[in-house]
Specification:
This protein has 277 residues and is an alpha+beta fold. 47% of the residues lie in helices and 14% in strands. It contains 13 helices and 8 strands. The strands form 2 sheets. It has a 6-stranded antiparallel sheet. The longest helix has 15 residues. The two termini are 36 Å apart. The protein binds a DNA duplex (13 and 12 nucleotides) through helix 5, helix 6, helix 8, helix 11 and helix 12.
Length: 277
DNA sequence: AAACAGGCCTAAA
DNA sequence: TTTAGGCCTGTT
């Protein structure tokens, strides 16, 4: 990878496996949107950014310092996904899936935002998840001006913890409201420490996450993978279950993809959801 | 109109 | 350890 200041933007060049649409639309995040030209604007880690692809480069708004301190890590740009794809190509199916998904990167998202977002995601479709998160941020996040537009940061756990169910009524997120509140309170009063869980083993972190009301296997694994950067976590939703039992049998073992089962999951998920058959 | 959606919880085999 | 039903809400 190479990057250089382009006056208000940073140009990222000589990088393999970085496709904006695949990365943003593969279901791992909910706060990035494309305009009609495929230019993505979104908010993460309390900052707004705009990204566009041009030729083989990606341009991202901001300074070199923004890039080095925030976005380089957020987009996981120091990981060699090309090499990982090769490692994951253990059979014809995976070869196909990883090739189809070339360009996906697992974002290193804010831990609390990931927890809260995937609690909301249960039994919901992406448009509604996005809508709920958008309202949540607009109601309780901080206002951020960017390029003449107004964005709202994802509200902290402390902020949410101070609310009651009635406060969350505008979200219209139904039974998930109490899950959000109890998770926020657990984080706020340090009953659970997401930062230290990121340093713990996946098994331990998973157990702690599942102790939260409203967090089961699927949500816990999504938080591990997208929030705590545990690349061995393997979220299984209905699509994954179908795809895996079709290709590897009813009782499959994700460790065949070790140590990148989580990345494998993302390729398989993206592939089975986007190919027509 | 009734079923279903990128789960989870609880109760009951 | 596995299975069934209910749950908020919005969409089809």
């Amino acid at each position: 990878m190479h990057y250089s200041d382009r006056g208000g933007e940073v140009e990222i060049s000589a990088i393999a496996d970085f496709n904006l649409e695949k990365t943003f639309e593969c279901g791992q995040c909910f706060r990035w949107d494309a305009d009609e030209n495929g230019v993505y604007t979104g908010i993460a880690l309390g900052r707004v950014a705009r990204l566009r692809g041009e030729g083989s480069s990606i341009f991202i708004s901001g300074t070199i310092e923004d890039f080095e301190t925030v976005w380089r890590s957020y987009f996981d740009l120091d990981k060699d996904y090309l090499k990982i794809r090769q490692q994951l190509s253990i059979d014809p199916f995976m070869k196909e899936a990883t090739q189809f998904g070339a360009g996906i990167r697992i974002l290193r998202q804010d831990k609390w935002e990931a927890l809260c977002s995937f609690i909301i995601s249960q039994c919901n479709n992406i448009p509604r998840i996005k809508k709920i998160i958008s309202i949540l941020s607009m109601e309780f996040g901080d206002k951020i001006n960017f390029d003449g537009l107004v964005f709202y940061s994802f509200p902290s756990a402390q902020r949410i913890a101070a609310l009651c169910e009635a406060d969350l009524a505008p979200l219209r997120c139904g039974y998930r409201a109490q899950y959000i509140l109890s998770a926020a309170r657990a984080v706020a009063n340090k009953e659970i420490d997401l930062d230290s869980l990121a340093q713990a083993t996946s098994e331990h972190a998973r157990k702690k996450l599942k102790a939260l009301h409203g967090v089961g296997d699927k949500v816990a694994d999504c938080v591990l993978l997208f929030g705590l950067n545990k690349l061995d976590a393997f979220p299984i939703d209905v699509w994954m279950k179908r795809a895996m039992s079709e290709h590897y049998g009813k009782r499959f073992d994700p460790s065949i993809f070790s140590p990148y089962a989580g990345i494998a999951q993302q390729y398989i998920f993206h592939y089975t959801r986007n190919i027509q058959n």
